[in-house]
Structure formats: structure tokens, C-alpha cells
Amino acid sequence: MQWGRSPMREGMLRQHPQMRGAIGVVVALTAGVGFSTGGVIAKPLFDEGWTPPAAVLARIALAVVVLAPFALRSLSGRWSIVWKGRWTLLAYGVLAVVGTQVGFYSALERIPVSTALLVQYLAPVALLLFVWVRSRRTPHRTVLIGAVLALGGLVVVIGPTSSTSLDPLGIVFAIVAMVGLAVYYAIGERPDDGISPIAFVWLGLLVGGSVIALSGCVGILPIHMTFESVDFFGGRAPWWAPVLFIGLFSTAYAYAAGIWAITLLGARVSSFLGLTEVVFAAAAGWLLLGESISVPAFIGAGLILAGIILVRLDPSATPAVVQLEALTSSEPLPAEQSSLHTRPDS
């Protein structure tokens, strides 16, 4: 990655691995706070007349502007590599950005933030089941146990045993976000194509924002904004205050910090720390929106998180790009490529 480095700082971090690890943990956790609070801060906008695609468009537009100088600097005019990776960027922008964010924000209109995140974070399990069906090879026992735990936790959270009634359409939107996140994971470990992570994220956001804007212009997605005051951290504030928060902190900073955390800690450690996003979102939803967490929901959330951890501990994991190839290939995967490995650098 070309953004955010200096030889002096990198040399110091290499000489002090404990400092590197500590900084990586702090950066990863703050990225989790950014991602998790974005939905909580955006939800009051919907009560004032904003549509979910409008909130996503505002979020992406601000992030694109903020990240542009760093991304353009890392590209250094090498637009040929962008053209070479155009199909991956298109899939990332349309499915991973638009699908995930519009699906998630649409779910927030109807169900609690923590529930939407729990469903969305089942993406690794969805990828596991997809690769299992495609390859017809049974995954490792640890992974199977994790999948059963996660799916059982989902039943506890949203199924007949749930103590609260959830809007079915909200669950459907959360599943759409889960599919988008699964594609995001699959693309996340693509072979090195010369595009730095910060440039790849910026280009993906640019593509996704353009798709949302064009879809709004032709009436496919409802884009409506209001300019009244909204709830913000327990008080009332101008409409642009939460928009700036989710655009700058929950998108631009969170994406950049997530990328930096991966370079400091590695993908696997960062992915485990990324699970704290669910915890942060539940706490923020309780503090700012009054969304209580029932005992069954708490137990279900624990099962889901434990299951996802086991899925990610797959000892025979292969790069997630295998799953991306499986999405378009008509041939079953070879036996040695039937396992799951994900990189949640959302």
C-alpha cells in the first residue's frame, strides 16, 4: 500500500514489533468504531425523510472527495492498470459497495442495527456453503461446527424463538447486504494487479457512487434528502452534521484505517478484530437509539460470533479469490481449493 507510509515511520515500526502490534490493534478497533457507528448515526436521517440510497450516496461522495488525493498519488497516472482491473473494480463497486451499503441502510429502516449487522456478518458462512455446494467437498470439521453455530445463532436472533418481532423485509435487505459483503470478501484477496489498496477502495467507491447516482436519476433507486435538523448524539443538529460524521469518520477514515490495520497486523488478526464492529454497533444502538438487547438475542449473537470465528480458523484455508472464480465458473472447484478463507477489510 502506498498511502500513509514514510520510510522513517516504517523503519521504526519494523524495529519495534510490539509497537507495531499495539498501533495495529488501536487502528483496527477505531476502524470498527467508525464502521459500526455509521449505521447508528444514519438511522435518524430516515426518520426525517431521507431514503437509504440518499444516505449511502452522501456517505460515498464525501469519502471519494477525501480519499482522492491519496488514491491519485498512489496511482501516479498509471491508468492502464485501472483498465486492466476494470471488471474486478466494477464487481466491487456494484456488488460489494452498492449491494452491501444500500442493503444494510435499507435494513436499518426496519430492524435494529445490531440485528442487521449480525445477518450481514454471516457472509463468511454463506461463502462456505456456496463453495461446499460448488466443490462437493466436505469442509473441515472445525468449519462445519462454526457454520452450525452461526446458523443456529441466526435462528435464535430472528427465528421463531426470538423475543421480538422483526420486519421480514428488513431481514431480506440484511441478506442482500450479506451477499454483497460475501462478494467483497471474495474480491478482497485478489491477486496483486498493481493497484494499491487505497486506490482500489477509492475507485470502488467512485464506481458505486456513480451507479447509485445514475440509478436515482432514472428512478431505479429512490433518492430523497431533507434539510431539517436531526437527532445526533442525543440532541438535535443540522442535517449535515450526521452526514459529515458518516462520510468522514465512518467511511473515509474507517476504510483507510482498516487498510492500514491489515498492513500492520495481517488479514487474519484484523478480521477477528473486525468482529468487534457488532459489539460496538449494539452498544451505540443502545446508548443513542435506545435499542435494547434481549437475552435470546444476546445468546444468538454469541453463537453467531463464535461460529464465524471457527469458520475463519479453517486450517486448510485458501485465498478468497477462489470463491470469486467460483461465482463465474461453470466447473466445480478442485478438491484442494474447496476451503474458505476471508479477508474482512470492509
What is the number of helices?
A: 15
Strand content: under 5%
Q: Order of strands across the biggest sheet?
A: 1-2
- Give the H and E element order: HHHHHHHHHHEEHHHHH
Largest sheet: 2 strands, antiparallel
Q: Give me the count of strands.
A: 2
Distance N to C terminus: 16 Å
Average pLDDT, to the nearest integer? 78
Which residue ranges are poorly predicted, with pLDDT under 50 across at least 5 consecutive positions? 1-5, 317-346
Structural class: mainly alpha
CA radius of gyration is: 20 Å
Q: Could you say which overall geometry the principal axes of the C-alpha atoms support?
A: globular
Helical content (DSSP H or I, runs of 4+): over 70%
Q: How does this model look, in words?
A:
This protein is mostly helical. The chain has a domain at 16-121 and 167-292. It is 72% helix and 2% strand. It has 15 helices and two strands. A two-stranded antiparallel sheet has the order 1-2. Helix 2 (17-47) crosses helix 13 (276-289) and helix 3 packs across helix 11 (240-265). The longest helix has 31 residues, at 17-47.
